[in-house]
Amino acid sequence: PRQSIIIDTDPGQDDALAILLAFAHGEALDILGITAVCGNISVQATAANALKVLALAGREDVPVFLGAASPLVGELVTAERLHGEAITEGWDLPVSTTAPRPEFAADWIIETVLSKPPASVTICALGPLTNIALAFAKRPDIASRLKRLVLMGGASQGGNMNAVAEFNVFVDPHAAARVFSAPVSKTVVSLDVTSKLLMTEYVLDRLTTVTSKITEQLKKLLTLYEGYTRTGRPRSLHDPAVIAWLLAPEIFSGKEVNVEIDTTPGLTYGQTIVDMNAVTGRATNAFWLTVADRDAFYELLESALARL
Ligand code: BDR
Ligand code: CA
């Protein structure tokens, strides 16, 4: 049966590829809507980029909603220093003729989850967890009504914002703390696994020569990675792993763990503290992925892109 999903996202090249991967597997995934959140760039820009991705996929029937414009506490830290110009410019893709819907993302999430049978909706979170935390704060009962939350965020083995914190959690650790303590089954795609999904030259060559209707645009989306890969510093592909886990969980393995979030300003701000050896006695609250099969992951992505 098809799984109903909501994609909460801050596109982001890797977010865009995740959305395209989901669309390519329409037989398995039914995208109810896309909620934009601030993160990589401002929420207006992430929503505009989400609309461009829908136009690219020929799926402008899917609604896009504007979400949080700033984290729960403090100012937004964007990923410009990570992603550079390519992301701030909103890419060289055709501008969409459609607009975000008027409803606020967190309200639409609540309404949608309440209108569907219990345990039927999965949220895929590809950015900071602000929208999800706001939805849970307003209607705590929707957390246990979800089927699952699959999120990209966190790290137990080294961060990408400070020594220990990953970007999505670092941008809004207060939201992450609320979400990790909420009664919803979670699968976590952290840097632990995405660091194993390096976009090597071999992978890039294959992805950029995929023959499909979107080949040219795909090349543009991958330009940013191209720069790193061709100069011998291949980067990880993060967000598509969330969708890949839904489609082919056998590509990954992981374990049930307790995760707590450090929200205290300082050297470890935004750290996901993962009780990997179950020594704290705290209840487990997440399924933490630890291993990914890179070849199988990229085969899934490549064949999906060819289907578009
Ligand atoms: C995460 O940060 C963002 O820049 C990416 O889109 C991904 O969601 C990786 O740390
Ligand atoms: Ca993202």
UniProtKB/TrEMBL annotation:
InterPro entries: Inosine/uridine_hydrolase_dom (IPR001910), IUNH (IPR023186), Ribo_hydro-like (IPR036452). One of its GO terms (molecular function) is purine nucleosidase activity. It is an enzyme of class 3 (hydrolase). GO terms for biological process: purine nucleoside catabolic process. Keywords: Glycosidase, Hydrolase, Plasmid. SUPFAM superfamilies: Nucleoside hydrolase (SSF53590). GO terms for cellular component: cytosol. Coiled coil: none annotated. Gene3D superfamilies: Ribonucleoside hydrolase-like. This is Inosine-uridine preferring nucleoside hydrolase.
